[in-house]
Design goal:
By secondary structure, this protein is mainly alpha-helical. The protein has 2 domains: 1-59, no CATH class; 61-90. The chain contains 3 helices and 2 strands; from the N terminus they run E-E-H-H-H. It has helices at 35-49, 51-57, 64-89, and strands at residues 11-15, 24-28. It has a two-stranded antiparallel ribbon with strand order 1-2. The longest helix has 26 residues, at 64-89. The N and C termini lie far apart (56 Å).
């Protein structure tokens, strides 16, 4: 069952228009595949590729010192989490 405007073997693309290394992701509709189901699969693919995360991250300029601070905090959280897991297992 296809919606209006859906063509057989249609390719739905999401791409970022960057000259260097733009992300291109596509999903091909199969014969008889429901458009809603295909859209759900496409969204999942986009989420796994991390496209939205990158878009949100690059929305505003982040100073190098802020990036270092953010990465150090994330590393500290990971260390604490690992330590807690280790202590729980012992």
């Amino acid at each position: 069952m296809r919606g209006p405007g859906a063509r057989r073997g249609a390719v739905h693309r999401l791409s970022t228009p960057t000259p260097k290394g733009g992300i291109r992701l596509e999903y091909r509709l199969r014969d008889g595949e429901d458009l809603d189901r295909a859209l759900k699969k496409f969204r999942r693919k986009v989420q796994r590729a991390g496209i939205f995360r990158d878009i949100k991250k690059n929305r505003f300029y982040e100073k190098p010192s802020e990036a270092r601070r953010r990465k150090a905090k994330a590393a500290e959280r990971r260390r604490r989490r690992r330590r807690r897991r280790r202590n729980r297992n012992n």
